[in-house]
Backbone:
């Protein structure tokens, strides 16, 4: 690779980037962590019925376990963890986070009642809150701008790969072991139910993941902004919020636009199998298999493609390349993701579903990349945690609930849920693209300002 290996500060000194081998290895390790985080995050969705049966709990309580319990501390602890990541060794913070979420995911397998399972799921959210803010900061420091699109794309492959594995491999495991009344006897642990066994075997391996960080080098921090004392010291949280407020025209538009992407993403993830199943009278399990294969192949290729496009535009001098790519993705999602449920038969619906998957995750790398590119190093993890907070709040909190609200209370027909999903996807995708278009000028201004930082 013929990428530059240093950046020149205003004083004329050069800070070397990691070698290409070191940088790409770091990204692949972080991606593996992201894959495991999504498996641990989503595996509970495959265990709904046996958990309900054994714990005698309601659908509402299951909903709390799937979304609210995880999002509660994932959102609110993100900022203080980001504050640490902007000051301390980011590798160590990620390592602690991986151990916490893997341990808590494993402990889900030992829960005896709803309260214990709820607290364990909260712990999963606490651990996962440590990963992305620190990872975004490390990736931004490890690559020059014309390589960031691909670097962020590789890291964010953890989303479709983790989701796809949870759908496919997790489904196979669940199908093999989750039978009514089936139990397992584990050494030293005794007898556990089948669904508890699934939590243990998917969570426990993650406890070994931090060992991979021993072979990863922490990249030198770059993009440091001077403080009032003319030193590149840590920046107080109050200064971070003042900086975001001062540049609110960019941050507000960007955060809301990307949160709209997250909202439609969670809506599709929660309801597309049901929509296809009801529309074409096919088992939801069959839809899940096709969707899992599509996510692992087409969606992965889409992320890599749009990352490559971003780097090419950046190399040509288009400073707002990540925003341009996100606008294109928003338009494509608004069009392609509304089509599958309106095809004449299920085969064509599956084809349309796969086509829609190509642009569907094209924004996941560009969104955080743009934030980190124009945010001073001492603030990156904290600002990223606010970005993730807004994403999780609107994405997890609104997306899955909005579709049935439209179907039940506006359309008043459960069989019209395909229209409800299409309305959410089209409106959110179109509005996101519009907000991103308004954002182009303030983003270019932020890029120009960031060129003055050390």
Residues:
């Amino acid at each position: 690779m013929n990428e530059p290996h240093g950046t020149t500060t205003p004083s004329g000194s050069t800070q070397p980037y990691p070698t290409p081998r070191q940088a790409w290895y770091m990204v692949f390790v972080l991606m593996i962590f992201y894959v495991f985080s999504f498996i641990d995050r989503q595996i509970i969705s495959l265990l709904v019925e046996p958990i309900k049966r054994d714990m005698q709990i309601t659908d509402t309580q299951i909903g709390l376990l799937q979304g609210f319990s995880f999002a509660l501390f994932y959102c609110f602890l993100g900022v203080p963890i980001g504050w640490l990541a902007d000051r301390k060794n980011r590798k160590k913070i990620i390592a602690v986070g991986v151990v916490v979420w893997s341990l808590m995911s494993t402990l889900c397998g030992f829960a005896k009642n709803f309260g214990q399972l709820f607290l364990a799921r909260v712990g999963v959210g606490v651990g996962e809150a440590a990963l992305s803010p620190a990872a975004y900061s490390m990736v931004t420091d490890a690559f020059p701008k014309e390589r960031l699109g691909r670097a962020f794309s590789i890291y964010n492959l953890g989303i479709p790969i983790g989701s796809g594995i949870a759908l496919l491999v997790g489904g196979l495991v669940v199908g093999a072991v989750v039978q009514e009344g089936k139990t397992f006897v584990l050494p030293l642990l005794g007898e556990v139910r089948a669904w508890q066994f699934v939590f243990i075997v998917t969570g426990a391996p993650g406890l070994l993941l931090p060992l991979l960080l021993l072979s990863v080098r922490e990249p030198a921090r770059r993009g440091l902004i001077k403080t009032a004392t003319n030193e590149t010291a840590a920046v107080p949280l109050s200064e971070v919020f003042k900086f975001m407020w001062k540049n609110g025209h960019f941050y507000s538009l960007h955060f809301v636009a990307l949160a709209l992407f997250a909202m439609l993403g969670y809506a599709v993830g929660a309801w597309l199998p049901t929509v296809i199943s009801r529309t074409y009278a096919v088992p939801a399990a069959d839809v899940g298999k096709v969707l899992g294969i599509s996510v692992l192949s087409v969606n992965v290729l889409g992320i890599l493609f749009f990352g490559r496009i971003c780097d090419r535009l950046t190399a040509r001098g288009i400073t707002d390349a990540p925003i341009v790519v996100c606008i294109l993705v928003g338009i494509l999602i608004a069009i392609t993701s509304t089509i599958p449920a309106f095809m004449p038969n299920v085969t064509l619906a599956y084809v349309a579903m796969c086509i829609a998957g190509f642009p569907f995750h094209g924004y996941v790398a560009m969104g955080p990349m743009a934030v980190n590119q124009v945010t001073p190093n001492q603030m990156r993890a904290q600002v990223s945690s606010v970005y993730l907070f807004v994403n999780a709040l609107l994405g997890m909190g609104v997306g899955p609930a909005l579709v049935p609200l439209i179907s039940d209370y506006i359309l008043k027909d459960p069989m019209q849920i395909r229209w409800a999903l299409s309305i959410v996807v089209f409106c959110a995708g179109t509005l996101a693209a519009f907000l991103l278009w308004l954002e182009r000028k303030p983003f270019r201004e932020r890029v120009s300002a960031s060129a003055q930082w050390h």
